Amino acid sequence: MTPSQIIALVRDTALVVGVGLILLFVYRSGEDRLKAADLKDLQADIQQQAKTLQTWRQESTYAQKQLSLDLAAIHTAPVVVHDWSLREPSCAQPAMLPAAADKTGSQPTVTGPVQPGIRTDAESDRRDSIVADFKQRWELILANCRSLDAQWPQP
Questions:
Q1: Which residues does residue 114 pair with via DSSP β-bridges, in sequence order?
Q2: Which of 104, 126, 99, 102 lies closest to 114, judged by CA?
Q3: Which of 1, 13, 16, 150 is deepest in the core (most CB within 10 A)?
Q4: Which helix (H) or strand (E) holds 114?
Q5: What CA–CA distance (Å, rounded) separates 26 from 19?
């Protein structure tokens, strides 16, 4: 054997061994190596998650019941009638503005325009219903927020 043949043989042998090692590493990396301790840890994790899920379901159920009670209370709440007048109760008639005097020096007219005093019942009822709708809308939003917050697992 010539030295060039020996070098070629060593080179080919090294290539075959290298390819074999690469195939062995690829094969071994794809194996599932599951041990008994791994299975026990996995079962413990599953049990812990089941407990957490059960707790969450209880909290979610409670939150939904509380939301139903809140919504029922909001929808059955009476409309509160507000006293919107800013006048003193001793005033029987709306206050009158003084009349503007003419530039010619003549006598002023008897009265000027009427200042707004107590509103009519229709205006007060409308204002009360607007305030009640506003309160109801925000109470519904806050009830939903409380419900969503109560559904999160509590520490």
A1: 96
A2: 99
A3: 150
A4: none
A5: 11
Compute the residue count for the chain: 155
The token pair at 107 is 């006598």
- Measured CA to CA, the distance from residue 146 to residue 16 in angstroms comes to 69
- What is the chain's Cα-based Rg? 43
The answer to whether 117 touches 91, Cβ cutoff 8 Å, is yes
In sequence order, what are the residues at sequence separation of 6 or more whose Cβ sits closer than 8 angstroms to the Cβ of residue 72? none
CA distance 95 to 119: 13
77: tokens are: 């709440």
Question: In the block, which residue shows the tokens 């008897």?
Answer: 110
Q: For 29-52, how does the pLDDT look when each residue is reduced to its tens digit (9 = 90+)?
A: 776 777 788 889 999 999 999 999
Half-sphere exposure (Cβ direction) of 127: Cα atoms closer than 13 Å: 11
pLDDT tens figures, 84-93: 555 445 555 5
How many angstroms separate the CA atoms of 38 and 22, rounded? 28
Tell me the two tokens of residue 43: 């079962």
Q: Note the pTM of the prediction, 2 decimals.
A: 0.42
